[in-house]
Amino acid sequence: MVTTKKLLSSQLRINMVSGTVTTVINTITMAVGFPIYLHFLGYEKYGVWLVLATVLSFAQLGDLGIGQAITKLVAEEYGRNNIEGIQHYVTTALASLCISGTVALIVIVIFKSQITAIFKLSSDNATMVSSLLPYIAALSIYVFIVQVLGSTLSGLGRMDLANYIQALSRLVGVTAAGVLLYRGLGVVGLLIGNALSYVFVHIASLICIWRIARIRLLRINNLDAQRCKRLLLFGGGLVGGNIVNMLGSPFNKLMLSRYAGISTIPIYEIAFNGAMQIRSIIEASFRALMPEISRININITRYAKDKISQLNRSAMKLIIVFGVPLYIVMLIFATPLLKIWLRQGFVQTIPFVFRIMLIANFANLLAVPSYYFLMGMGRIKNIFIARCITWLTSMTLVTMIAVNTNYLSVSILGLCLFVSWSLSSAYLIWLFRSAMWNYERIVSSSEKLKSNTLIRCAEPVS
Hints:
- The chain is an all-alpha fold.
- It has one domain.
- 84% of the residues lie in helices and 0% in strands.
- It contains 17 helices and no strands.
- It has helices spanning 4-8, 11-59, 66-79, 83-110, 112-118, 123-155, 159-182, 187-212, 225-259, 264-283, 289-296, 302-332, 334-342, 350-365, 368-376, 380-405, 410-458.
- Helix 2 packs across helix 7 (159-182) and helix 3 runs parallel beside helix 6 (123-155).
- It starts with a helix and ends with a helix.
- The model is unreliable at 1-9 (pLDDT under 50).
């Protein structure tokens, strides 16, 4: 069994620590960014940008789950030292996503008037959104390409580099957007700043990939139908869950826009993303578990079972030792911290909503280790069910309240998320424990069979 000392000194440990470090950087970046955006745009115009960002989120459905599939499949090929196989996977993924991204662009351009009408915007805001949607659609294609490169770097065992690049890209995006907002570009400045952050990820990822493995991507003979099938099969198991997951938050923004007004969307965004950033400080370190568990789980052995159990205990201990105190501090000091952070942008309703989002997020955090362990074990169907429980339950509750009362608030929406996240977390934790019980049964049966075989082999021949 791998000792704790060896585990802590491994690349897995480095990858896990980088997740926490970069989450802190991302939290600071977000803390700097929101006041800047609100200062130059106000709640209404910033709400317009969030509408555009929501459309970009919907466009990510064209990812087809390939981003996560690349991390897993590249890790397998790199473990075999098969550079050619990595080239085939990455090039095939890029070609597939260019096609799906182009489809997303065409759909957004054709239906931009209908998309704008859904959000029930004022005429000026609707005109602005409609004029910028084609650029958002084009950006979605580029995002696909950048995500594949980041996933490739993670699959090569350097999730730490991928995390640091992502964190620095956010700094680039906020800095560029701040300068452009100061120059009076408004919402367009946010769009350009966002695009520049992806350019940074693109260049930095290519440099790091080239230094680790001299893979050549721009080759037609890298295209591989069989590997494309594997990408789509694995990704297809995730895309259903991604669709449900990506529909959730945009749906909430849509319902707030229609029943509470567009000015409530930034309140939801600040409270939701703020709580998610707090959660990510703990959760980010667990993201490196998925490729690690994938490698461990190739053979069902006592070693694999014991190591998974050890990692699970360490993960839950991390949540209790660091997560619980962190959440308690944030719940107690939410109001003064938000006042310091938002300054002129502070409104009285944000602290209460933020506390509700914190409690809902903690319920979700408890199941994060189980989520990544099940992902590494290939239990994609169960991950999909968990996501359905989360967002379909939330969407159903929000719809029932809004339609029956013709009223909706951000705090009510937060309570709906708390209920749905609690249910999905209970499901994931139960499922992981069931999987480990089944693991133990299989390992014990295998060991018993091996023991009986050795006894028979040792018996003298009459």
